Amino acid sequence: MEVRVTSDPRAFEQTAFPFLQRDPVLNNLTMTVVHERATGRMRDTEPSYFLSVHDPDVVGVAMRTPGRYVYLGALCADLAVPVADAFAGVLPEVPGVAGNRPVVDAFGERWCEHRGGRTTVVRGTRLHKLIELTPIAADAGGPRLMAADEVDLVAAWGKDGFAEELRIGHREWAEGHLEHRSMWIWEVDGEPVSMVGFHQPVFGVSRVGPVYTPPERRRHGYAGALTSHVTALILADGNQACLFTNLANPTSNKIYHQAGYRPVADFVEAELAS
Question: How far apart (Å, rounded) are the C-alpha atoms in residues 80 and 223?
Fold first, then answer.
């Protein structure tokens, strides 16, 4: 068994995508992150690390991008130890790890052997894919693309709603959505009240997200209506749609179920604290 680490997303895409494309929904997050960097759509100010396990062909992948957790996805738990060893060789520390529960537990145990500390699960997530879209209506308003003068607003909403996932580069992140026309706004009486983004399709699958509504604007159906609108656009382009939900938020899980999304797999996110 051989573990390879690279900071070149294009090289990693060529190496790992034949393996990942076997299940483009389950592996969509990894494929999207890599593809957006390989095509220059997303640029990091610090190196990313992309890892592949070979035996002799690729049997597993993992990654860590700046400011984010190590992402293991659906990696087999049997590969957690060599993957943790490889990351320990290039990273002095990481804030956390995400993936299916068995591999996160095994990775965390091995990482703590290298660096000390402890692993604490802080969140559970669920990957869903759309089976059949059922449009959702809101109390008022309608959808439109993000406007050029809303970069600061979208950056602030991203920072507020996704502090763990989006630790750095909030404005650059918002500017990227503006440039690529990948952020939609729900507007009521001329005022933005919710946002829903999406990622470019990779092997026919596009992931919806982020989804955010300020607390004072919730419970009016804005996010659900906007999510169903963005989903319809994805379907109209001939792609499948998927999204992640926070298992601690039963309201959003119920709404996405009403829209036609169904569970694919569960994951956890765990802090790695000294």
Answer: 37
Cβ atoms of 232 and 68 closer than 8 Å: no
CA dist 253 to 45, 125, 127, 243, 257, Å? 34, 10, 10, 11, 6
Which SS3 state, helix, strand or coil, does residue 150 take? helix
Return d(Cα 28, Cα 207) in angstroms, integer. Answer: 7
Q: What is the pTM of this model?
A: 0.93
Total length of the chain: 274
Positive/negative CA dihedral, 159, 5, 38, 201: negative
Strands 261-273 and 96-99, sheet pairing: antiparallel
Share above pLDDT 70 across residues of the chain, in percent, rounded to a whole number: 97
36-95 tens-digit pLDDT: 999 988 888 889 999 999 999 999 999 999 888 999 999 999 999 999 999 999 999 999
Can you tell me the distance from the alpha carbon of 11 to that of 194, in angstroms, rounded to the nearest whole number?
A: 37
- CA-to-CA dists, residue 97 to 129, 165, 194, 248, angstroms: 23, 11, 29, 18
Answer yes or no: is pLDDT of 168 > 60: no
Neighbours of 116 (CB within 10 A): 10
Contact 43, 49 (CB under 8 A): no
pLDDT at 204: 97
